[in-house]
Design brief:
The protein is α/β, with parallel strands linked by helices. It has a single domain, classed as Rossmann fold (3-Layer(aba) Sandwich). It contains 8 helices and 8 strands, in the order E-H-E-H-E-H-E-H-E-H-H-H-E-H-E-E. The chain has an 8-stranded mixed beta sheet with strand order 3-2-1-4-5-6-7-8, sandwiched between helices. Helix 1 packs across helix 8 and helix 4 runs parallel beside helix 7. The longest helix is centred in the middle third of the chain and has 26 residues. The chain is globular. The N terminus is likely disordered.
Length: 247
């Protein structure tokens, strides 16, 4: 898994957009890719937070709310005007929790909660990918990384005695299982691209109320690795830092 050779950005470097990148895994991924020489766009719903994050990293910023079509289209137009895109990291995501940061289980989950979770995690991923496909198809080495979860693995979630089997939530794992299927179908449709889903691991971020057992530096490892794939790298796969995961 070597560095990509795509260079469509105005600086002659690999141009990379990371959604939800003003904090957490997205921010750490941006930091690492800037250090690797990428021209990184911090995608952030809040323009000011995105600007501050970009200033800290020596990155660029673009206002981008994955749930808003106009916002996504405007971000695509801005990056196109700036020179194009080589790598898209679909990182923005939510996990709905109840009082006391409790995971919302099957008895409490509602259609409205499912819809809200899917709007960001699933429809947001499709919305952003669709908008940036024309730019990615012009790249010499286009890469898409979809941030999934180990909870998306049907094999893992149905194995008794494991932490994933014990997880009681419905909306989040269902949304990430959908992201995995999206990844497979896009990879089949665009074989010239490297399109993969990744599991960062149970990372301490705002997503889970900072209850995770590993750092953002550890969690970002597989995202950064897959964002730097060469054209002969794997595609249509599902990976964590140790290698391929079972679907």
């Amino acid at each position: 898994m070597t560095a990509t050779t795509g260079t469509t950005g105005t600086t002659g470097t690999t141009a990379t957009l990371i959604t939800g990148a003003n904090k957490g895994l997205g921010f750490e991924t941006a930091r690492r890719l800037v250090a690797a020489g990428h021209t990184v766009y911090i995608g952030s719903r809040d323009a000011e937070r995105g600007r501050r994050a970009a200033e800290r990293l020596g990155a660029r910023t673009v206002q981008l709310d994955v749930t808003d079509e106009a916002s996504v289209r405007a971000a695509a137009a801005a990056i196109e005007a700036d020179g194009g895109l080589d790598v898209l990291v679909n990182n923005a995501g939510i996990e709905e929790r109840g009082g006391g940061n409790a995971v919302i289980g099957a008895a409490e989950v509602t259609a409205d909660l499912m819809r809200k979770t899917f709007e960001t995690n699933v429809f947001g991923t499709v919305r952003v990918t669709h908008a940036f496909l024309p730019l990615l198809r012009r790249s010499a080495a286009p890469v898409v990384v979809n941030v999934s979860s180990g909870l998306a693995s049907l094999s893992e979630v149905t194995t008794p005695g494991t932490p994933r089997y014990a997880y009681p939530g419905v909306a989040y794992p269902a949304s990430k299982a959908a992201v995995n299927m999206i990844t497979i179908q896009y990879a089949k449709a665009f074989p010239e691209m490297r399109i993969n889903a990744v599991e960062p691991g149970f990372t301490s971020t705002d997503l889970n109320g900072n209850t995770g057992t590993q750092t953002v530096e550890q969690g970002a490892e597989i995202i950064v690795r897959m964002a730097q794939l060469a054209p002969d790298g794997p595609t249509g796969g599902y990976f964590d830092a140790a290698g391929p995961l079972p679907w």
